[in-house]
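User: I'll paste a sequence; please echo it back and then give the predicted structure.

Assistant: Echoing your sequence first, then the prediction.
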Amino acid sequence: MNQNKNHLHIGCSGYSYRQWKNTFYPPEVLQKNWLAYYSSIFNAVELNSSFYHIPRLQSLQKQFESTPEGFMFSVKVHKSITHFQKLRDCKQQINEFIDLIKKGLNHKLGCLLFQFPPSFVFSKEHLQLILTQIPDGEENVIEFRHSSWWSDEVRKALKEKPLTFCNVDYPKLPIEIRNESKLFYLRLHGTPDLFKTSYEEDRLKYYSKHIPSKGPVYVFLNNTFYDAGWQNARDLIDFTE
């Protein structure tokens, strides 16, 4: 399962799941060492705990130290920014959050994920908030949960900013792979049973064919409720080799 393509980062959305004990994590591996073990198998992880609580600098530094060189993190932005305030008057808050993450993860920080709720539908005002509040940079990834954002207008605006449009496999959203940024990002959430459905081999091979040959590339499996997430991530790595 070694990934020999330096631009390619495949892993799971999160790693600390008790249901993975004795399946992914051997019984002798203590929970405090789970990230170290995870990083011996995968070369990237999407930290989603940061969506629920602002991480402590000490915790981020420990995660940095627990992983080898070449391992990369993507960090989900806190819900107060994307779900509660929905970017209104958030520029300083966003910058402070980014500064904290960068200080903790240093050069192992690959991306920041701004995931918006289904209620955040397309409007000129919402698009303008994205363009004015979120800093420039392809490493800032935008994930939408409403189909109204799949348009040429949005595509052009994010490309010019620049920001990265997050490709998703999510119930009732378009399956349209975009590769217009220097950075490619794909989240596979599990469909039709969100967070649970395991992807069949044909579907994983379909996505593997759409992974760019140049990077950076980030693909994360979020069907982690059971064991499908780490199993599908492992299989996807095999299909891209």
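The mean pLDDT is 95. The two ends are 9 Å apart (CA to CA).
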